[in-house]
Amino acid sequence: MSRFHHPPTLDDIVEMAEQAFAAIPKELRDLVRGAAIVVEDVADEDTAAEVGLESPWALTGLYRGTPMTQKSILDTPLEPDTITLFREPILLEWVETGEDLFRLVRNVLIHEIAHHFGFSDDDIERLEGLD
Q1: Which of 19, 43, 100, 131 could form a disulfide with 47 if both were Cys (CB 3.0 to 4.6 A apart)?
Q2: Are 41 and 92 a contacting pair, CB within 8 Å?
Q3: Residue 68 above 60 pLDDT?
């Protein structure tokens, strides 16, 4: 499966997410300059419901913030944009699919950023296929 002999920790996923972020297409990285990548174990029930999911176990990532394309220098800065990855659902998908964990984390990042900026499912699939 991977280099892990135990379930990857939050810190392991953070490190992997930082490396994965550097490996996503430049067109996406440019859209989210300054966004923080956060890793939590699992979303809470309210967050899952907010995005229309019945279970937090179905949520591997979430982008919160204002797209760069909608920000103005005149805006009062609020909280920074965040891309939250949910470790346990990612690990569950990793075990269920056997996909490479790094690639899975990278694809969750791509998916969250691209959906936030209105990319189509076809565009997201194309971006996920780029290595």
Answers
A1: 43
A2: no
A3: no
- Round to the nearest angstrom and report the end-to-end CA distance of the chain: 19
Phi (first) and psi of residue 37, to 5 degrees: -105, 125
Contact between 117 and 33 (Cβ < 8 Å): no
CB neighbour list of residue 20: distance below 8 Å, 6 or more residues apart: 102, 105, 106, 109
Distance CA(85)–CA(20), nearest Å, equals: 12
d(CA 92, CA 96): 6
pLDDT in tens, 36-65: 999 999 999 999 999 899 999 999 999 998
Task: Quickly state the pLDDT bin for 18 (edges 50, 70, 90).
Answer: very high
Q: What is the pTM for the complete model shown?
A: 0.84
- Containing 36, the helix (H) or strand (E) segment is strand 36-40
Tokens of 112: 């969250």
Residue with the two structure tokens 């997410």:
17
As a whole number, the mean pLDDT across the chain is 86
